[in-house]
Amino acid sequence: MMTYSTEKLYEEKVFKDPVHRYIHVRDRVIWDLIGTREFQRLRRIRQLGTTYLTFHGAEHSRLNHSLGVYEIIRRIVDDVFAGRPEWDQNERLLSLCAALLHDLGHGPFSHSFEKVFDLDHEAFTQAIILGETEVNKVLTRVSDDFPQKVADVIAKTYENKQVISLISSQIDADRMDYLQRDAYFTGVSYGHFDMERILRVMRPLDDQVVIKHSGMHAVEDYIMSRYQMYWQVYFHPVTRSAEVILTKILHRAKELSEQAYFFAYEPYHFLSMFKGNVTLQDYLKLDESVIMYYFQMWEDEKDPILRDLCRRFMNRNLYKYVEFDPSKEYKKLQELEKLFKKAGLDPEYYLVVDSSSDLPYDFYRPGEEEERVPIHLLLPSGELRELSRQSDIVDAISGKRRTDHKLYYPKDFILDNSSKRAVKKQIREILGIE
Amino acid sequence: MMTYSTEKLYEEKVFKDPVHRYIHVRDRVIWDLIGTREFQRLRRIRQLGTTYLTFHGAEHSRLNHSLGVYEIIRRIVDDVFAGRPEWDQNERLLSLCAALLHDLGHGPFSHSFEKVFDLDHEAFTQAIILGETEVNKVLTRVSDDFPQKVADVIAKTYENKQVISLISSQIDADRMDYLQRDAYFTGVSYGHFDMERILRVMRPLDDQVVIKHSGMHAVEDYIMSRYQMYWQVYFHPVTRSAEVILTKILHRAKELSEQAYFFAYEPYHFLSMFKGNVTLQDYLKLDESVIMYYFQMWEDEKDPILRDLCRRFMNRNLYKYVEFDPSKEYKKLQELEKLFKKAGLDPEYYLVVDSSSDLPYDFYRPGEEEERVPIHLLLPSGELRELSRQSDIVDAISGKRRTDHKLYYPKDFILDNSSKRAVKKQIREILGIE
Amino acid sequence: MMTYSTEKLYEEKVFKDPVHRYIHVRDRVIWDLIGTREFQRLRRIRQLGTTYLTFHGAEHSRLNHSLGVYEIIRRIVDDVFAGRPEWDQNERLLSLCAALLHDLGHGPFSHSFEKVFDLDHEAFTQAIILGETEVNKVLTRVSDDFPQKVADVIAKTYENKQVISLISSQIDADRMDYLQRDAYFTGVSYGHFDMERILRVMRPLDDQVVIKHSGMHAVEDYIMSRYQMYWQVYFHPVTRSAEVILTKILHRAKELSEQAYFFAYEPYHFLSMFKGNVTLQDYLKLDESVIMYYFQMWEDEKDPILRDLCRRFMNRNLYKYVEFDPSKEYKKLQELEKLFKKAGLDPEYYLVVDSSSDLPYDFYRPGEEEERVPIHLLLPSGELRELSRQSDIVDAISGKRRTDHKLYYPKDFILDNSSKRAVKKQIREILGIE
Amino acid sequence: MMTYSTEKLYEEKVFKDPVHRYIHVRDRVIWDLIGTREFQRLRRIRQLGTTYLTFHGAEHSRLNHSLGVYEIIRRIVDDVFAGRPEWDQNERLLSLCAALLHDLGHGPFSHSFEKVFDLDHEAFTQAIILGETEVNKVLTRVSDDFPQKVADVIAKTYENKQVISLISSQIDADRMDYLQRDAYFTGVSYGHFDMERILRVMRPLDDQVVIKHSGMHAVEDYIMSRYQMYWQVYFHPVTRSAEVILTKILHRAKELSEQAYFFAYEPYHFLSMFKGNVTLQDYLKLDESVIMYYFQMWEDEKDPILRDLCRRFMNRNLYKYVEFDPSKEYKKLQELEKLFKKAGLDPEYYLVVDSSSDLPYDFYRPGEEEERVPIHLLLPSGELRELSRQSDIVDAISGKRRTDHKLYYPKDFILDNSSKRAVKKQIREILGIE
């Protein structure tokens, strides 16, 4: 008997996708989910936040990525896993839905917003799936407990660990999509690996998804690709500069609000965030258009710091940076803070240390804060072996955290000799700029 | 003596570009123009307007395209034309600036805005270049008459026709960039041609830019690519549906404003548009973030038409269409209009005929309204020949206008049987939907 | 019950292919056919004959192409046609075998060999499939009448016209593979079209394979791609020059043999060809290695013409050409022939008119010599319409034969002034060379 | 004054190249070198030897690669180095010629031939450049000492180490071309790195070519690409199987010749090789066509081993393999050798251990047998730093040799139970095959 969960569209729908060529939709449930307002909202949130200020092509939305993750999972469950005894094909629809919806709770410029306003996009993903939303209505039509199942997969608490592994592990559909997609839209030559090969060698096995040994080199390529994308794109110093300024804008706006500052243009959408009582409905109204609208308005605010920061962000007049070693240069930082104050620049906003770090691949270390599930290779003998024990290259970089610290500041202000010349000269000497 | 116009950056700046691999900037003037707020504003205007609702990858901005056009011109003037006696290398900087700035006056969703509010983006491009703007300041530093020269090139009134031809002709840097760029971001397989080849065979000659005969096949490919992009991407029926709804939103808002409707949320940014007295400063504040912000607010307006249209646009619940022949089916349209009214649907907003037409290539027809400059091939003998006289394929399609008409309507309303069942049934019969 | 015809390999075999990414083999029959000596022989015959002398990348073999055609058919029958009532899935294996083997009878540099020695590669394909060969043994294991069926499909006499249509029609797997493959290996930017799209819209219908209307633009692109490849690659004047010389080598060798010339190195492999009694076993020994071996030997033959021509071919010292209009310039040709003789150059070998012509697409014209099956579009109404009636572009070029004539000659000889200076001067004047 | 060394062609010549898009030739000397018979001979030698039996696309010739290396050097010297004070532009033509000719002495299937007949392709490169050849004539026209200079660069004894470094170092034009080219023709997804970026950051400095620090990640990608190509393509076990058989064919033919075996078809081209007195003229006649010709003839020789091996090679009926640890499994090998003899299979030809090993990157270790020049990064401070000290990834793999051993054997013979069933059963048990 055909039920909603097995209903197929009369004709397959196809979206043209630059990364996977086509996104294929045949399931009514998936089609309905794509049409919900909560999913369409992801069009108005960029996948890479402020990265478009460094790589001008990186203007692609999270909707873009979400469709891509869905398509990868669809190929795995329909073309690779279907028919294998270790895989329960009843998990098919659940896997597809979780893939499509895994990023549903992301807000605009998530990283900065979460930090400043103490939000959690994963909690919002859960809330959208389980709350009074169009998405929830569609999922409930499948069955009463279906929304909870989808939420559990995304929260990694679902009982069938194979499903979780497909969507969040060290080699999951999420990462495989974003590495390729972000490489495509930024135009960098990193980010390429043979995904078709990896999909063909994935195997469901007990409580995980493993990789046939013959696919090891494709996985090595994927790990290297991940490494390069982190350092060449995601942690690019110019992007981090934009992120620093964005964070400081939010910070300043909140501070002004707490000081009962009178905004020329009342920031309705921000009020509950300033107060820390954001509802789901408030949250869903936030998208990057809204944020950019306010930033444009704030370019004319009377508070000089808020105004300056917004102008910098909107017109890409970002901070410059010098390398900074926090373990050794603490005194230098203190000295600079003093000088910035003397120069009339609040160091809280104009002198910022930013650190990025990445762990390209990690094997399982039980008991540690972030227990990553390792990648296992399936040897011809049937034995499993953890990737870094088989691959020299992965072994070489696994478990090694690399961290990079930079000190950001507005170079144009420091070079401007119309006032405070002596102090600025001192600052320039310490920062080593001509 | 080095002046501002010949000043080079200490180190060449490079932007990663997915289409041309790298955008190279060595001239101080170009670098300064890129940093202006008017140029950075182009980040907030999509190159393809509503196309992202059909092709989800098409989220790239006009800044993206503007840099691309600049890069193409840079390669032509520096690598192909430099040193040729027929070319005046003094026009180099002017060509680069005109390339970079040629789309500066575009607003959000230009097509719809211009139609509803009677605006003209070309006039705004002129105004930005010649008015009190950061762009004008940079150009004036080159020389007092430089802004006017740039404006003249873009307006096609500049005396050196070679420069105009590079930037606007039937095979110019503008088209060469957008065809490739739009193909890249939508992911379609059309839009590819051998630009490197075309650039290498371009030759300045008298008052035009001609193509060496040996490059004819590459040009044929370009013309075909243009043809396919028009019909597969630019005139895609789903994009036109989004465009129809967008136009109707603006139309409705204007109408409401003229009827002194009380907006729950005052549309400040729109007021001068409603009144028809838009200043340059008003115009520069318009970008797609602002438009999307208002559309989101209007999703909760009390006017049912404005509210419905905005919800459709934001959540991609677009109109469906049937083919429509305006020359023969006029009566049918009248009949439908009557039935729509009976069904409670204002045909002004809910029953829309949209026509698209394109002329893939045209040879020169003096005296006609739109005098297109033809593409000339330079034969080995030194003789010039108009492209369509040499190429069978181009001859086949040149001068032939193709037009496509469709009738758009909200299918969900027509299928909804909760009211007016009889009328809707009649409508469905006429439209031929089940 | 599993029989040989349905036997699957324990694990799918995969060949890496630059054009289709992977060639997948699961059927035992296909695997066995690939392993036959007659199929492996195709490794030693280049897909594009002498084209590698113009496009140095064009060194790919016919084995390469044969695997590609097989893979395209595999995707059609397994992914697109399987399960459709209009298609008889019992034809699956037959389609795959015919695809794989359709070029089996090609010899080295087929075009020239067939012309000079009056051979017919299609007859040899039949002979290999039906004769005493490893290929025949494999096919006979399927069933006694299976070799004949495969031969019939390739000969276009098989009763199920859908199967024939897949492998030889105006939009078949053969053409779709070679256009893309030849573009890939030559490196030209033509030859690209959206094959994935075309495959998805192919439909079996009555006695043909039709294209769903929505795929029309992809088909237009394919037709244009074909047009460009013909004129840019297949009929490239330099390739034709190599072809002219090759033909003349074969011609000379045959002539010498008939004149009982004593070859310093006896051309065993050629003897039956000279005499016109080539057996299948003789034919199968011919491959390009053998030909090149003899040409190398003949570089030192005492006959000055054979020696010169072989040296030219081996060391790419080809003839140059001028445009030539046979309908008007017949007298000029006669005059040149006289002068060549005076200059000591046999015009039979050193003054050659070569003509190429192509018909990019043709609709059905019953009764004409070459009855091409037209491409039919399947309209939403269920009606069929011939492609050129629906597509402006295809209409423009359909049925129009384009022909190009060139006159080839050894420019180095004509420029060499060590002898016959006066005559050569006259020749140069007529040919218009400096 | 224009001399031969500075003479430019009237019009630039362009070859279409799939990897670098176009190969540009403007220098008369280069054009003349390309036209020599010794250079054209490289068309008949595959770049990757027997690899085409594993990757069917890998049929590209060494001429292909040689043009590619030339083009890379041309871009470096003309677009990157020209005008830099550290670079002597007088070395331009020398660099271009050495690039074009660096592989001139390669014979067919070099690896096997050199091993069996104790030949040295580098010595032949020297001999061709300095001997009585067309190449030598062209070079001598530049100046009397020019051939010697070119030979010195290729032999790495030339005084200007920058020139040597461009053509042979750990990041030279040779490697950059072949990694990309071999990846392109095999179709693998490895082998990609951002060469354009690397070229732009190369700097001549003292006696080497260094890399600007900002290009480090592109170099990391190149090193990884190299690593993957070695293990995925160059050391592919199937290719090694073909190589094993090829080596054994040559070995057998030599052995037979030494035993005064009477060849049904006298192997003229091989005689001097069998005797160890190969002249330059003999060597230049060897190409892959010649080899394949003999192998075809030998398929019918009466010696059963030579016949069998040739049939295997020609028809791709290769040996299978098992992993083998020579340090531990020596006894097993001895046991197998005994059993093979009992089974009537000469272990010398039918049981072969093959080992491959690679050192992906090495820093300088003076005094060791193979002193590799390390890659140096140029830091912003002007300081040089050896790559592996700056890059975690390179550090991880540098200096680590990885070796892989396999044991090859004819599985079909071992599975054939028509004779010696008991012995073959024992062999199968030891080899672990069913």
Automatic annotation (TrEMBL), chains A, B, C, D:
InterPro entries given in the database record = dGTPase-like (IPR050135), HD/PDEase_dom (IPR003607), HD_assoc_2 (IPR045509), HD_domain (IPR006674)
Q: Which organism is it from?
A: Jeotgalibacillus soli
Superkingdom as given in the UniProt entry: Bacteria
Kindly list the biological process annotations in GO that this record carries. Answer: dGTP catabolic process
Query: What is the protein name stated in its UniProt record?
Result: HD domain-containing protein
What's an example of a GO molecular-function annotation for this chain? dGTPase activity
Q: Name one Pfam family in it.
A: HD
Q: Which PROSITE patterns match?
A: HD (PS51831)
Q: Which residues form the HD domain?
A: 62-179
